[in-house]
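Lab meeting, item 3. Inverse folding demo.
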């Protein structure tokens, strides 16, 4: 039986190598043709979209349309900083005690907030513990600084501000939080959220 099978295999007609290569080329041409047809359909669809969106343009002599208002929350960064040395803060004195801004900056430096600077100018006096003014790029930084005063700061979002948080120290300020108190305040506050102006 095995001998019969071996004879059958020897007698089986094999296509010449040239015929096999020709079949492979034909398959490749069919695949290329199908891919080209698919790309043509995609390009035609994109061209239709471009024609439809650009068809509403005003004529060259007409005035340009009014610009859309800039997104006040562009560049919103809700990430907490990895290290206090990444937080840029400008401290102002809004308390009756003169020089409180320099004292707070010294305490911040001791806690590795190396980018903390005293503004050297008095702010409008406030009874609050602190007021934090921050922009879209400093949401996470402001949350950490709020924890430094046990979440007792008044938060003021200003979309025109850069990545530096302005911290106004008020009459309600007593001292910065300990590391344990900071961690508790961060847990209580939860993940940083977008300011109401960005919701």
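The presenter then showed the designed sequence:
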């Amino acid at each position: 039986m095995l001998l019969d099978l071996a004879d059958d295999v020897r007698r089986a007609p094999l296509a010449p190598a040239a015929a096999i290569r020709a079949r492979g080329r034909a398959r490749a041409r069919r695949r290329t043709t199908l891919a080209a047809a698919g790309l043509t359909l995609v390009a035609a669809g994109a061209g239709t979209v471009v024609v439809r969106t650009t068809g509403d343009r005003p004529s060259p002599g007409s005035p340009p349309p009014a610009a859309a208002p800039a997104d006040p929350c562009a560049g919103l960064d809700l990430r907490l900083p990895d290290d206090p040395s990444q937080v840029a803060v400008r401290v102002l004195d809004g308390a009756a005690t003169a020089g409180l801004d320099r004292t707070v900056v010294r305490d911040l430096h001791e806690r590795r907030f190396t980018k903390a600077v005293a503004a050297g100018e008095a702010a409008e006096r406030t009874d609050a513990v602190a007021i934090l003014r921050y922009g879209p790029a400093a949401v996470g930084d402001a949350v950490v600084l709020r924890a430094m005063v046990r979440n007792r700061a008044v938060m003021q979002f200003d979309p025109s501000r850069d990545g530096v948080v302005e911290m106004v120290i008020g009459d309600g300020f007593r001292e910065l939080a300990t590391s344990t108190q900071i961690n508790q305040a961060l847990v209580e506050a939860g993940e940083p959220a977008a300011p109401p102006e960005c919701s």
